[in-house]
Amino acid sequence: DAGVIQSPRHEVTEMGQEVTLRCKPISGHDYLFWYRQTMMRGLELLIYFNNNVPIDDSGMPEDRFSAKMPNASFSTLKIQPSEPRDSAVYFCASSKTGTGFTEAFFGQGTRLTVV
Amino acid sequence: AQSVTQLDSQVPVFEEAPVELRCNYSSSVSVYLFWYVQYPNQGLQLLLKYLSGSTLVKSINGFEAEFNKSQTSFHLRKPSVHISDTAEYFCAVSERGGTYKYIFGTGTRLKVLA
Description:
The complex is a heterodimer. By secondary structure, chain A is mostly beta strands.
């Protein structure tokens, strides 16, 4: 398996624009997590899904943030409108529970810069 | 609610010296415990994990961690560090049979000096 795949790796956008981050989890994994990493706040869990259903979005900072998982192989995190304080590295991770439990595997991240 | 505390934000150590990175957690239920390592401009990679069984777990590159339930700790140790161990290390906890979400500590930046 190629691991968790995130795109794009880098994104530079202007304040007010819509940004969409994409994630392809590892096949067969039933949990998907979105994290944000900044120097000030470290790794924050934004939202996570189980079998494509959002379980907890209490970490989403504002209504400007939304996430979807339309199927088991794809998830998006959208910021609309974007602001400079959204600049961070966004990570997607997936894991498998139950039989064949695995730890969370992380993608390489998307470095977002909002100017 | 779960929480993870990594008291040391930075740990400088000379090459070939031993190191310990501390991790304490809080949870009302049984947990799985993990150490992840992050190299510059990369994602997090699993270093080692405790799921059950022996409380001492080891990685292939010489790190080990011991689960201490009474002290709610999962400290990471290496008897002799290399320059290549310079990275940021994150401790994480996940509830058994619960939400399975991963809560991370704030990270410890290990800098190995020549």
